[in-house]
Amino acid sequence: DAGVTQSPTHLIKTRGQHVTLRCSPISGHKSVSWYQQVLGQGPQFIFQYYEKEERGRGNFPDRFSARQFPNYSSELNVNALLLGDSALYLCASSLFAGGLAAFFGQGTRLTVV
Amino acid sequence: AQSVSQHNHHVILSEAASLELGCNYSYGGTVNLFWYVQYPGQHLQLLLKYFSGDPLVKGIKGFEAEFIKSKFSFNLRKPSVQWSDTAEYFCAALSNFGNEKLTFGTGTRLTIIP
Predict the structure, then answer these.
(1) CB-based contact, A43 to chain B, within 8 Å
(2) How far is CA A56 from CA A66, B31, B93, B105, in A?
């Protein structure tokens, strides 16, 4: 069985640009959560989606947005990139809502220059 | 504010030594607790979780953790570590009040010397 897949694996962007990160959950999982992991820190919660609706939002600016599609895959969008947005972005999926991010993807390493 | 603290930033042990990694949380109500492991170059994996019931929880790869409510702690233990346990370990908490989100600690880097 395929695990949680994220694309791309690595990305380099310039300040001010926009980025879209993608996540495909494990088959049958309806909940997707996004986390930001800055080097040397634990993951920080950004969003959770369940059944295509936002169920939770962390303390991130409005430049961060996300959505979930009918097939339960998800996109994380970040506008007006800042150097501080450089991080590993993790997607996690679970069967149900509740933030029980049991299965994580490998992440997308975003570098903003 | 809800928070999770891991006071050991880097732990170095020899193979066969016993391991205990500290985790403290600050939540006012019911809380679910987790330990995740991140091996070098790999994704985060769930080691074990506590929801309710027996406060001693057994996970994969011989790890266990004990929930002590009076101390707001959920320490991770393993009686005899192996070189393959070298990894980053994260404690996380989920509060049943408010946002349904996992709050992670800053992680503990564990290095096992053969």
Answers:
(1) yes
(2) 11, 17, 15, 19
Query: Please, are residues A103 and A29 in contact by the beta-carbon 8 Å criterion?
Result: yes
The pLDDT of residue B66 is above 60:
yes
Confidence bin at B100 (pLDDT 50/70/90): low
For chain A, what's the residue count?
Answer: 113
**Chain A residues lying within 8 Å of B104, measured CB to CB:** 35, 42-44
Label residue B99 by pLDDT band (50, 70, 90): low
User: Tokens 């001693």 identify what position?
Assistant: B56
- Which residues sit opposite A22 in a β-bridge? A7, A75
Residues A52-70 pLDDT 10s: 999 888 999 999 999 999 9
Which residues make Cβ contacts (< 8 Å) with residue A47, sequence separation at least 6?
A33, A34, A54, A56, A57, A58, A64, A66, A76
For chain B, give the mean pLDDT: 91
Q: Chain B residue with minimal CA distance to A96?
A: B100
B100 and A48 within 8 Å at the Cβ level: the answer is yes
A45 within 8 A of A56, measured Cβ to Cβ:
yes
Q: How far is A72 from chain B (nearest CA, A)?
A: 18
